[in-house]
Amino acid sequence: MFKPSTRKFLKTANEKPGIPLLEQLHGYFYMRFPYLYIGVGKGEHWLSPVFKALTRFLNRLFPNSESGKAFADTYHGKVILIETARALVTVQEEISIAYSEKVIPYSLARDLILRDPDHIVVLDCPCRVSRKQSCLPLDVCLIVGEPFASMVIEHHPNRSRWITQTEAFQILEEEERRGHVHHAFFKQAMIGRFYAICNCCACCCGAMQAYQNGTPMLASSGYVSQVNIDRCMGCGVCAETCQFFAIALENDRISINETLCMGCGICVSHCPQEALSLKLAPNKGEPLTIPHPSYL
User: Fold this and answer.
1) CA-closest candidate to residue 131, choices 233, 203, 208
2) pTM for this structure?
3) Are 188 and 75 in contact (CB under 8 A)?
4) Which one of 3.30.70.20, 2.40.128.110, 3.100.10.10, 3.20.20.70 gives the CATH number of domain 223-280?
5) In this predicted model, what pLDDT tens digit does every residue of 11-48 receive, in sequence order?
6) How far apart are CA 20 and CA 257, in angstroms?
C-alpha cells in the first residue's frame, strides 16, 4: 500500500497532462530509492551495469514519443546564486512560474511551482552518501514544497528531517562558506517541476560530474565571473575554490575560462580582495529569478 504522500504525488502527476504512467513510476522510484538511483547513475553501485541494461530493455519495450529525448531533456539542474537560493527557501506564498528555455534549456520540465513553500526537508545528500569518502556534512539537500517534502520524510525518516525556512537559510549560508555550489533541480518525472536545492561539490556531485563529462544536464546561472586586475593580488583563493575548474593562476595573475565558468559566484564570495564580480552572459542563458519574493 502506498503511503499518503506517495498517493498524493501520483494523483498530482496523473492530473498533469504529458506525464505517462511509466514516468510517474520513475518519479516514485526516484523518491523512494534515491540512494540506489543516484549511486547507480554515478556508476558507484554494484548494480549499475544491471540497471543500465534494464533501462535499455524498457526503452525498447515501451517506446514513446519521448524515447528520442536525451537524458538531459528530462532531468536538469540550474546553477543559482546564493540570493536566488535564499529566495526559494524564504518565500511565504505559493508560486507558479513557467520559465522559458532561455532560463532553463530544458524542453520538458521547466516550471517552478511551489506548493506549501514552508514545507522544507533536509535530506542526507545521495551523491555524498554514495561515495566511500565523501565531503561533509551529509545533510545539505533541501527538498522544497509538496508533495516532495512529505514523500522524503515518510520514506527516509532516518536520513531526513523537517526544518524551518530559517534553518534552510542557514544551511545555504554554511554551504556557501564551504565553497559549495547551489543548484535548483527540475525533473520531468517529478511532475515536471522544481523540487530541490542541491548544495554540493565537484568531487561528490553527480550532476557536476555528468556536466564535466559532456552530459548537458546542468545549466549555467546566466552569469560569468570577471576579474578587476587592479584589485587582484594573485593569492589564488579563487582558483582553489572554483568547482568548475574555470580559474587558473599563473605568474601571480588569474585568468577565467568563460566557457567553463558556470557563474555560481563562489569565487566572488571567497575573494579576500573583492577583485571578482559577476557579469551577465546572454550566450549562456538567463538567470533564474524569483519575482517579488516575500522574505522572512
Assistant:
1) 203
2) 0.87
3) yes
4) 3.30.70.20
5) 888 887 777 787 888 889 899 989 888 877 766 655 55
6) 41
